[in-house]
User: Fold this.
Amino acid sequence: MSRAITFLTRRRGGRGWHWTDVFIWTWLIGGLIVMFGPALWLVMSSFKSPAQLAEFPPTLLPYATEQVMVEGYDKPLNLFTAKLPDGTTKVMAEVRRIGIVSQLVDPEEPGEIVKVNIADREPVRQVHFATENYTEPFEHFDFLQYLKNSVFVTVIATLITLLTNSMAAFALSKYQFRGRNFVLLLIVGTLMVPLSVLLVPLYSVISAVGLFDSLWGVILPTVATPTGVFLLRQYMLTIPDELIDAARMDNASEWQIYWRIILPLAAPALAVLAIFSVVWRWNDFLWPLVVLSRKELYTLQVGLNTYAGELNVQWHFILAMTVVTMIPVVLVFVFLQRYITAGIAGTGLK
Amino acid sequence: MSAGASLSSRIGAALAAPIGWLAAIIDAPLKIWQRATGTTGMAAFFLAPNMLIFGVFVLAPFVINFFYSTTSGNAFFLSDRTYVGAEQYARLLDCGSYLDTSTCREDLFWNAVHNTGLFVLLQVSLLIVVSMITALILNREIVGRSFWRAVFFFPVLLSPVVVGLIWKWILQRQGLLNSVLFQFGYEPTEWLTDRFWAFAAGITVSVWAHMGFFTLILLAGLQAIPRDLYEAAEMDGTKPGRMFWRITLPMLMPNLLVVIILALIRAVQIFDEVYVLTGGGPGTSTLYLTQYIYEVGFASLLRNPGLAAAASILMGAVLVVLTLVQLQIGRRNEKKGARE
Amino acid sequence: MKVKISIVGAMAAALMGSSAAFAGDVRVMWYSDGVEGEVIKDILDRFQKDNPDIKITLDNVAYKVVQEQLPIQLESGQGPDIARVTNIKELANHWLDMRPMLSDPKYWDDNFGSTANWMRPDGSDAITGFMTQLTLTGGFANKTLFEQAGVAIPGEKATWDEWVEAGAQVAKSQSLPAAFAIDRSGHRISGPNVSYGANYIAADGAPAKVDDGVKTFGGKLVQWVADGKMLKETWVAAAGSTYRAAAEDFINAQIPFYYSGSWQVSNLSSKIGDNFDWVATGSPCGTAGCSGLKGGAALVAIKYTKNPTDVVKVMEYLSREEIVKEFSERTLFLPAHKGVVDKGGLKWVSQDKNVPAAMDAFVKAAGQTLPNADALPSWKWSNAYYGALVTRLSQVMAGEMKIDDAWARIDQDIADKVAQAK
Assistant:
């Protein structure tokens, strides 16, 4: 195979650069910037102070203006290199800034306030990571509690999903019974109407069943994923029937067949479903928001939304917390990513 | 990567024993069930948990939703609502001209329909093209392939709220994009408050967020195409472009069909990330069907759950028709291909 | 199926119950504009010390949750035991009538009687709760920006046009993005609408069609957005009746004039600090007057609570004169308690020298409201009107609809809402 590949690539431009090579590398590098760039920007911004966030144009790295204690002022003042009205340039401390006028004093001789246009001054800056954006919310914000809830929901939901979806997929792929196609059609059919549209009816079902305002009410409606059943079924169709027939002849029970043969063979597809389930449940936002009413049951995403309340938009905390909610999913991906292509390829989506 | 593998296999090994016991315990009663009901009975058993949950939490709301759409009023419980037959549907479909939303009784609904239609057309096309190109590129022997695969798949991991927030942060009047343009001397543009740009931003952001998923599906399909087909074509002197149309595309067709269907379904249901990005504005230029249904059914001060239910049934019906049409086209293509 | 679900629902609710299932548990749903969350927690902690058998849980949620999720919870018979709500009239059917359980109903009638109709169905005499504050819509001006631009702050009788002109001059001189901003809310623009002669309520109590007052001020708003005088993002960057406040832009000194209301005082004071001087300006004048709109949030007891006796105890504690006084002073809210208001002498807890002046300005402006505006908080179709106004006007501002079509649509939206409730 590699000979064919070298054969193919050699035909295109040989040792030189063919236009397809240029295109490919442009696409890849461009993809890197476009895909990772915004996330990088998010992480960088999450370390900035609120004042810096309101700046335009914004800087890439988080800076903080150097500060100094000046006699006669309680709080430390920011330092600027300013062009004074008399033409000289000096490092001054800013008392306040309003609109386009900055009021500066000499840090050594704080007496007279000099008014300078903000265009004529540059802050004296150093790189500073405002890590308090990450630590402060922990104090106001029951972060650990929300994290616990998110982990509980994600893990339990994924386990239930894997079990029930694989059982159903097994039934739908390896058994012939009346109504099989009808069941399949039913499952795929409900893919057509998303949950956000069924909020009110689902809400009444949840109330009727008594699961309102509980984590189980968050978990159960989400585990019978049509995509999961579909994916697993496609994969199981590729498992040869002879294996199953042989096991039956060896007097294995159906449950043993499922447990000992089907599940291990379907491992790559299960891994894919596990990854997707983790990503979906971790990022679920609308349904937990609707079902949960007690604060101590909130998941991370719902808690984050509370933080982004209309009246009190505190961007620096929101950005930091957003980064934190991203981390676990990225970790799961890094550990399990090799399964993804194998699993999807194995489903032989035909 | 190897550290992760050994960790996960160690966790797997640790969990294997108790899980094995559990499975063995379940085996005994199930053998009895099997003896009593035969293999069909076992099929029912396997199907049962999923279908039970499905029935209660997916199907039941679906059906209730249908009943909701035949009622009106503000009450929450179905039994307290007034039956009005197909009135909500009549209201939704009441239009002077379907192309001019200002003649419609429910102009917001038709705005949402037009927006969604245009969005689906543009976004799915862009998504397919971008995913296809990326899959073709990733299919080649390039350095660090799994790294590049992760790069394009990365946004799929992010929650829609995060995606919306990130891009809102970049595109707002004082955001990153404007500041980069500012350095080059351009005036800051209103990316999110101009009707054309907000719409374009919605398309771009959702393509950004989802292309990784479809790229992987297409890549799996590409990797399943046997190399000797290409080799044979090479020896016949076929040009690369022709190889794509004659070999790659037909072999990829089943995967591509799945991608198109899934992408279409998702595009019609678009909500989370654009809702965070533009909230449906400016005006209603990024108001899509799902947001309309959510607001009218749930969140708006002018709530009307019956109308929202009717709209959701219509949306579901359109999706079913679309999917069936595509499946038919796919089947016809397969037959044509088989004949050739 | 329909009957079965409601029976099952009732049984399930009775048997399993939700949040405050056990005696002694009281759950309070609260939202904060400023520091009220901390203040109420402090007060409730003191109550718990004196009443250790009652366990109070305070849920500090986003305003959006109270606006969007709570109504659905209430509709399905769920929800907290006590909630701080602004949609008090529209949801009045869900509030608990505490009158039979109160130890001194007369105290409530005397001190909260004037606003009691805002939070109970028409014609009822229920006591469902009390206003945590009285709010009044009104403007804020960035005094320092005006000074720097050399523009005089318009006087008491200044009209909307004069204010916007002055703001535009300041914006031009100081390179600001807009002359003024107003929150994206039908409630906010209703005071100015009334100042131009609008009356939402027809003779029979049903909603009236959009009249000249609304058309005048609404038309002005659209024109100001087109001219770039009004900050576009607030109204244009959302759809439907979603609420958006422009407070951040005022706090960042991006706009010289901001029309919002008295509940912002605490928020502005803590965020602005001494970055610049600001004043409360009352409401600019229209042809009929200089009216703002009264309102406020109420703390109400929910009908579906499992624990009415404890809920009443908590409410009686929180409504005591000295508690109301303390709450108002610390949160910088105007009290709704007649006794507190009459006695006067509130010592606002704030180091900010802008605060007392602002509070006084609002108290003064409270006397300027027009009758058409005063009728709105107790009118059950107010929210329908507000929602329709904001949805359609923002479409016009985004260039999606002509303003004349908008008026017809607003009337239609409101009529639909009225028809639906029957």
